[in-house]
Amino acid sequence: MQNSKIIIVGAGGAGLVAAIKAKELGASVTVLCKQRPTNSQTCMAQGGINAAINSADSVELHIQDTLKSALGKADSKMVELMCRAAPEAIEWLDKIGVPFSRDSSNTIAQRMLGGASAARACYAQDYTGLKILHTLYDQCLRVGVEFVCEQMLIDLIVEDGICRGVVTLDIRTSSLQQFHSNATILATGGYCGLYGEYSTNASNTTGDGIAVALRSGAMSDGLEFVQFHPTALKNSSVLISESARGEGGYLLDSNMKRFTDELDARDKVARAIYDKMIDGEDVYLDITHLGEDFIDKHLPQERKLSKLYENIDPVDKPMPIRPVAHYSMGGIQCDNQTQTAITALFVAGECANHKVHGANRLGGNSLLELVVFATIAAENALKAPISQITSDIDLTNNKEFIDSLFNENATINFYHERRLLNSTMYSHVGIKRSKTKLTEALKIVEQMSQRVEQMGVLDTNKTYNTELVEFLEFLNSLYLSRQIIQAALKRESSCGAHYME
Ligand SMILES: Cc1cc2nc3c(=O)[nH]c(=O)nc-3n(C[C@H](O)[C@H](O)[C@H](O)COP(=O)(O)OP(=O)(O)OC[C@H]3O[C@@H](n4cnc5c(N)ncnc54)[C@H](O)[C@@H]3O)c2cc1C
C-alpha cells in the first residue's frame, strides 16, 4: 500500500514530535525548516514541562490552574485533554531518553512555577528545552525522518480548499522549491520576534507560518494575547527563567524591597514590574540568598546567562530585569483535531491556538502543549486521503514576487523600519494598551506598509542571501503586526495579557 506523504514545516519541539509520531504510524515524513533542527525557540526553554505526576498534585489541580490562568478564554475540554495526556507525554519523553533531573528516590524531579498550586514542572536542570529537542532530533534520525534544511516557507499549495503541499525559498540558492504532500503540518512557532529587542525570542521568530496560512485562507484566533515574561535581563532581553523565582528568587525594587507575589500569574507580575519602571525605578531579580551550591546545581544556565549578558554574577548580586514579549498565545485557528480551515492543513505548537492558554499561559504548559497536540496533528494528518499527489505547479507568481523584492533603487532601509516596528509594538501594543495607543500603532503600521515599495533587497547575490530572508521576515512581521493590532482594538476590555488602560 502507498504511504501517506506528510510535510512538516518547522523543526522545533512541535515539528519533531509530529515527525516521530507520523513516521512511527507509517507515513513518509519530510521536515522542512528555515534553519537547522537543533536551532529553535524550543531549545531555549529552561523552566520545565508540566505534568501532575506527584502525590501532592493531581490532574484536576492542573486543569484548574490552567483554566484560572486562562481567564475564561480557554476551552475547558481542550485543557482537560492536555492535562490528562501530560503524564503519558512525560513517560514518552523519558522513554526516548530525555535526561530529566531526578530526586534522591530516582523519580523525576519537579519544581514550582508561577500560577501552579503544586510543584509540577519536570525539568532537566535549566536546559529543559535543549535536552528535549536534542533527544527528539536523535529519535527522528533513528526512525528515518527526512530533513531538508534552510527552506523558508513562503506559500502553501492550495487547490479547491485542500492543502497539497508548500512552496519554499531555498536559502542556499535563493531558488524556489515545491514539496507535495497528502497532508501538511505547520509547526513554525510564534510571533514574539516582531517585538525585536523587546522579546526573549530570536529575531527571526516572525510568525512566518501564521502569515502564510492566513494569506492562504486559514483563520487566526486570539492574536491580541501576547505574553510578556516578567524577568528578562534588562540590557539584552535574555530570559531568566521562572524557575529562578520557582526556586525561591525575589523581585526587588530600587529600595531593595519585595513588592509583589513573585509566583503570581505572569501578566500580573509583568504589570507590577512595568508600573515600577514607569515610576522610574529599577527592578531586580535576587537569588543571592539561595547560595552558590544551590544555584550551580539547579540554576546553572541562569548564572551563566547573567554573567555573559549582564556581567553580573547572581551569586553575589541581584540581576536587573525588565518584562518583554515572550509567548504568542494566539495563532492559527484550528479544531480539536488540529485541523485548520484549509483541508489537510494541520497545526501544532506555538503557531497554533489550541485554546489551552487563553489570555495567559502558565509556565511549563507550552512544551506540554506541543507534545500533546503535535501527536494529535500527526494522527490526523495520516487520515488525509493518500491518493493524488499533484504534479508540479506553475510557480511564476511566486517567482515574480521574489524578483520584485530585489530593488537596487531602494531609498528606505528596511532594517530601520524594522526597528521602528519593534519599538512601536512594545510601546503601543505592549504590557498596557489603550485605544489611543493601538490606533496610533495601526497608523504607523499602515504608513510603513505604504513605504514598502521604496524598500527592498540591495544584495543581488543568490547564495545565502540573508538580506532577502530578513526582508521576507520583515514583510511577515508587518502583515502580522496589523492583524495583532486589529485584534487588540476589537477587544475593548482587559483580559489577562491584553490589558487596556
Ligand atoms: C527563552 C524561552 C524560554 C522558554 N521556557 C519555557 C519553559 O520552560 N517551559 C515551556 O513550557 N515553554 C517555554 N518556552 C516556550 C516554548 O519554548 C515554545 O513555546 C515552544 O518551544 C515552541 O515550540 P514550536 O515547536 O512551536 O516552535 P519553535 O521551537 O519556535 O520552532 C519553530 C520552527 O519553525 C521553523 N520556521 C519558522 N518559520 C519558518 C519558515 N518560514 N519556513 C520554514 N521553517 C520555519 C524554525 O526554524 C523552527 O525550526 C520558552 C520560550 C523561550 C523563548
The CATH topology of the domain at 396-490 corresponds to Methane Monooxygenase Hydroxylase, Chain G, domain 1
Intertermini distance:
60 Å
Instruction: Name every ligand kind in the structure.
Output: flavin-adenine dinucleotide
Q: Give the percentage of residues in beta strands.
A: 15-25%
Largest sheet report: 5 strands, parallel
Radius of gyration: 22 Å
Structural class by helix and strand composition: alpha/beta
Largest sheet strand order? 6-2-1-10-17
What does this structure look like?
- By secondary structure, the protein is of the alpha/beta class.
- Among the domains are: 232-323, Succinate dehydrogenase/fumarate reductase flavoprotein, catalytic domain (Flavocytochrome C3, Chain A, domain 1, Alpha-Beta Complex), CATH 3.90.700.10; 396-490, Methane Monooxygenase Hydroxylase, Chain G, domain 1, CATH 1.20.58.100.
- Helix content is 38%, strand content 17%.
- It has a 5-stranded parallel beta sheet with strand order 6-2-1-10-17, with helices on one face. Strands 12-15-14-13 form a 4-stranded antiparallel beta sheet. Strands 3-5-4 form a 3-stranded antiparallel beta sheet.
- α1 (13-24) links the parallel β1 and β2.
- The chain starts with a strand and ends in an 11-residue tail after the last helix.
- The mean pLDDT is 96.
- The site of flavin-adenine dinucleotide (FAD) has 44 residues, from α1, β2, α4, β7 and α5.
